[in-house]
## 1
Amino acid sequence: MNIHEYQGKELLRRYGVAVLDGHVASTPEEAEAAARKLPGPVYVVKSQIHAGGRGAGRFKEDPNGKGGVRVVKTVEDAKAAAAAMLGKTLVTKQTGETGRVVSRVYVEAGCHIARELYLGLLVDRATSRVTVMASTEGGMEIEEVAADHPEKILRVAVDPASGISGFHARKLAFGLGLKGGQVSAFTKFVTALYRAFTELDCAIVEINPLVVTGAGEVVALDAKVSFDDNALFRHKDLEALRDDGEMDPKELDAVRHDLNYVALDGEIGCMVNGAGLAMATMDIIKLYGSSPANFLDVGGTADAARVTEAFRIITSDANVKAILVNIFGGIAKCDMIASGIVAASKNLHLQVPLVVRLEGTNVELGKKILAESGLSIIPAENLADAAEKAVRAVKGAA
């Protein structure tokens, strides 16, 4: 689960992470009032959407204008900047051409920037440890830095048994070329950030840029915070920070029904149980010449009601020209899934070709239910057969 910059900074502030003062606003008048609470004479007005590259982005309504992050010098200009952003659609590299509508801005105090650095924390699957990454190339896309100059990315893996220590932070600080009091400020910053990461069950915390001010302070100028969805049951207060407006309506609907769904831009809707099997299904659809319209894992305990909701979400995508169901029955037996497929197809008056591959517990009974349903369900013997038939159905409908 992602949250906005202003929400992330407020959480990090509670853990002692150095951030600048700022206030969120949803109207130009609120933005002006927010600026008046800050010392000035420089203010930064930032669009709040769940995407990076806001400063380099463009607004659909004003493609030749300024981006989604603007530096101003008066409270009146802060109000004008907010008016130019609010209600407009911001397009960045991460949003694609669809963009995101800006419904709030963050008005933050300016500061004297001496250096821009990068700092990020994530769980590294290779080491099974929280890894702290740092780079002198702050303010840039870290993916580009990793591709073009991997030697400029420093990494320190933290043993979960001992936690973070001063030597971890000092190693990074020296690698970044920090000196004197900057080293101690950086050490304090990293230690607090690691504590926030672990106690909040974060998936990633990214500070880009992390700035060194003219006074030698180390401050988070931006904050991207994402949480592990599987741990949200422990943090109801964090779950309340979810901005439904930033989510695809289909993905939001899926969350409410305990479905793992990600909207894609293909034409074959997928309903699968198990994340690995879902990935394999999407891959083989590509292999046979089409593309998946979604990732959808109904889970190992799927029942008829969840199958119906899954079908409803898939068919709400106007791009879907066929549906491929790939189920390996275990706890969720094939006959139960088959009954759910039949019920959903009838209730939703399914109009697109439906290809079903079943395997596992009670598979023969499941196939019998599908065959006797009276519906035009296309059976498949294996995954390759299912993908080939789904792609053929799409090509025939085109």
## 2
Amino acid sequence: MATSVYKIIELVGTSDKSWDDAARNAVETAAKSLEDLRIAEVGKLDMQIDNGKVVSYRARVKVSFKYKKD
């Protein structure tokens, strides 16, 4: 059986619409420069507030991808 190693990084995605969009932005942006993404885990959600109103949503996302030895 072949073995694999995966690296995990943490990203923060933002959106002015929703937490779903914030998490999606993090993953889709990472996919532009990382290969073989495997799993995304949302760990923390928060909001930025200005004058008592929510102005943006933030999602902290851990993303794993296959580690390739050079």
